[in-house]
């Protein structure tokens, strides 16, 4: 759900995590407040195009190896695993890394969803260095890049190497300290993903609509459209799955037509009736649920004839600062569209203004360097 | 000349080497026989498309940094610098690395010319591991890849990362011992390049045709064609400069038309008169000299209207074994052509059969692993 179409298909990653955990395995989840200021953890995820990831069976030990490579580069053992992206398979890969390394995982991430590019996260926007930077393939090849000056270079070099590795790589994109997770992370996103999952499973068991289950966890979720996919234009190129789908309205939306653009993740949903603007743009989350099964549909699974419910979820307020919108707003993706935030926040917590008043970290200027 | 169109433009690389050496600088050149069996040296070159390399000013210290990275990875200081490719700018970059590291360079290389891909050399074909594998950009970013299983993977991953780095990278592709240089290297190719250069400079000073100067150093060089470029089809993609040129015959070749294909380097020259076969194919060397200046023309400098002398030089016999032809023969580049060797050898030395009789290393089966 939080992958908003991307982050990688969860089926194979889920099997991999089950295998790593075994029947009695567990990963300790720490809240950011439980970390020592100087504790550190590598930021773990996968990199690549979901259309490729779904073709590749995960390799045993791949994400744990990233942690060990980061520890070697740093010259000291890590204290925790940090999540790089809470959407799709990338919500599960840091759990594999934690289970394989015997480390706890922190209940926070720097996106609150999935985004296609490495610089699109609160850690990198705040100036956390992409160091250590480790990529690996499924066969044991490991690449360690040093002196990478910024996250845009990490994105460019990492994307190219990922493409050379066949389109999918394991990634450690720098490290964060406990203090940095508290100052910059979006807290509670792993718990949110777990809650969404539990409610969905419960709803399916009771044959209740999963859309309602999602809305029970994210009260500000909004139903946008019901429709059938009548066109999919897709290409997998330069490390991304890019394209556009067209939906023909069904039920209450009969006669309407919705277009959704994506780059690994869904970016913008627009009605084709000449109305100005968009129903939803990045960084707000577009969630496409398959009408029958209620399952979230990733961009790699889009095909003609799918009946979909289209929902929009408000982005966490950490993504709505000017510094973050410059990197993850619609204009950062080349759209001549203003970002008009959906009301509310992704997480059940005090409203942004209230939070700002009580949380001194919100006063820290965006772009401040913590390196 | 030995670049056969590729290996990178020598102008900027030459300026860089002059700068590194300064007015009194020198690099010690060792013959393979002077190396201890267990001495070792990283194999140094650049990687990328010549069309990109010519746009990039060399960065101070780049090639010396490759040596230091290889030494760090190996955990011991290197004894010499090994040349990865004797053609074009790649003949000069190992000299920069040697000057910057204060190491001697060995008078041998594994190609006797330039080739577009990393697996196309005697070291890799004989099973030398691409380890340590280091790439760097011009800004200090360094990538160290470990557990790369073979040279084809090194080529694929290295090419992708080079492309991400903007199309040109410094490269340390594994290491060789003194014993390996003696067993697998093509001896005397640095001396050959120096002799060719000296004769060319001398010829130009005396306003003599440089074609004759080249032929005085490589007696088996053969003049194929005189013509004017009437068509250049070129694209720079996936890390290579690829294309075809057409030459319209001049002087004795009036009425003839020659097509030359290239992938960074010139690969195949064919007359367009319906005659079967090719005048020259890889691994034999195609050398295009500008008619007026007598300078060798790289694939990055091809343009309409250039008047060219086309010469062919026989490949060194080390490239003519079945194991090497499987990797550098015309069929390895996708041509349905047999390799018909030009008579003679690139180097002034005993004929292959005689050499085989006196040199026990020729009895070692191609493909033997020395790792």
Question: Could you estimate the helical fraction of the residues of chain A in percent?
Answer: 25-40%
Helix and strand succession of chain A? HEEHHEHEEHEEHEHEHHEEEEEEEHH
* CATH H-level superfamily of the domain at 10-189 in chain A: CV3147-like domain
Question: Termini of chain A, distance in Å?
Answer: 32 Å
Uncertain runs of chain A are 354-371
Number of DSSP helices of chain A?
11
Quick tags:
homodimer, 371 residues, alpha+beta, CV3147-like fold, seven-stranded antiparallel beta sheet, five-stranded mixed beta sheet, 16 strands, 27% helix, 25% strand, globular, disordered C terminus
Can you offer a commentary on this structure?
The structure is a homodimer of 371-residue chains. Chain A is an alpha+beta fold. The first copy, chain A, has a domain at 10-189: CV3147-like fold. The first copy, chain A, is 27% helix and 25% strand. Chain A has helices spanning 10-21, 50-53, 62-74, 93-101, 122-125, 151-164, 178-184, 189-205, 210-217, 322-328, 352-358; strands at 29-30, 40-48, 82-83, 105-106, 108-109, 133-136, 142-146, 168-177, 186-187, 222-237, 240-249, 257-263, 265-271, 280-281, 285-290, 307-313. Chain A has a seven-stranded antiparallel sheet with strand order 14-13-12-11-10-16-15. A five-stranded mixed sheet of chain A has the order 3-2-8-6-7. In chain A, a hairpin with a 5-residue loop joins β6 (133-136) and β7. In chain A, α1 (10-21) packs parallel to α4 (93-101). The longest helix of chain A has 17 residues, at 189-205. Chain A is globular. The model of chain A is unreliable at 354-371 (pLDDT under 50). β7 of chain A pairs antiparallel with β7 of chain B, so a sheet runs across the interface.
